[in-house]
Amino acid sequence: LTLGADSNNLPTSGSLGVGPVYFNGQGNTNAMPSTSVRCLVTTPATPHTVANPVTGCGLASLWVFGGNADLTFTGAVTLPTHVTIQTNNTGRTVFTGVIGGAFSLTKVGGNTLALGGQNTFSGGFTLGLPGAQSPGTGTLELQVDSSPAATNPPASGPLGTGTFTINAISPSAPTPLTVTSIVATGSGARTIANTLSINGSF
Questions:
Q1: How far is CA 65 from the centre of its chain?
Q2: Rounded to an integer, what is the distance from CA 18 to the centroid of its chain?
Q3: Which of 92, 112, 146, 183 is the most buried (most CB within 10 A)?
Q4: Distances from the Cα of 166 to the Cαs of 22, 49, 52, 130, 198, in angstroms?
Q5: In whole angstroms, what is the distance from residue 51 CA to residue 68 CA?
Q6: Residue 194 gets which letter from DSSP?
Q7: Residue 135 in contact with residue 86, Cβ under 8 Å?
């Protein structure tokens, strides 16, 4: 699906109407590329904003984003299952609304995923898949701090409330890179309260 226009806040109108955006179908995050890719692409090379809520149906486990500009989602996101986001666009894929659900989020792809919400999804956040077909990891941009809690995990934060896992990428992968970068936007230090797990050789 190619987007050529923005949606207004709420949204009151937009290229995707006013209701939720559903990623539907079955993806396969264990073997890349997926047998069923759900993909949003921006065109032309100008940034676009989608204000609709985002969720999925069935086993919509691989969400792919492409194009030549930033694609920003400002609505709430509900993870319908364990979801992998693949960032193929040359701009950034940005989520500023709250991402919730009892599932995990994994980031792959050579470009940037930016997270700016006080997210509450509880299944953990994973950067990179270690398999031979992994498409690399790219850049993870953290736009907010974790909200403090009495004990770990945090009450909320850009990486949700579960464990933050960083995987080394197989040397035989199409893009045999480890983590390109984890960056913070805004002034001052960025605090992430998630438990950290690192797998593989770096």
A1: 10
A2: 22
A3: 146
A4: 28, 29, 30, 10, 5
A5: 19
A6: S
A7: yes
Name the nearest CA neighbour of 122 among 192, 55, 194, 58: 194
Going 55 to 114 to 91 to 88, the CA torsion angle's sign is negative
Task: Say whether pLDDT at 48 is over 60.
Answer: yes
- pLDDT tens profile 55-98: 887 666 888 888 888 889 999 999 989 999 998 888 899 999 99
Close Cβ partners of 187 (under 8 Å, ≥ 6 residues apart): none
Q: What is the largest CA-CA distance in the chain?
A: 49
pLDDT (tens digit, 9 = 90+) per residue, 122-149? 999 999 887 656 677 889 999 999 998 8
pLDDT at residue 6, as a whole number? 58
How long is the chain? 202
Pairing of strands 112-115, 77-78: unpaired
The two structure tokens encoding residue 195: 């438990």
Mean pLDDT of the chain: 79
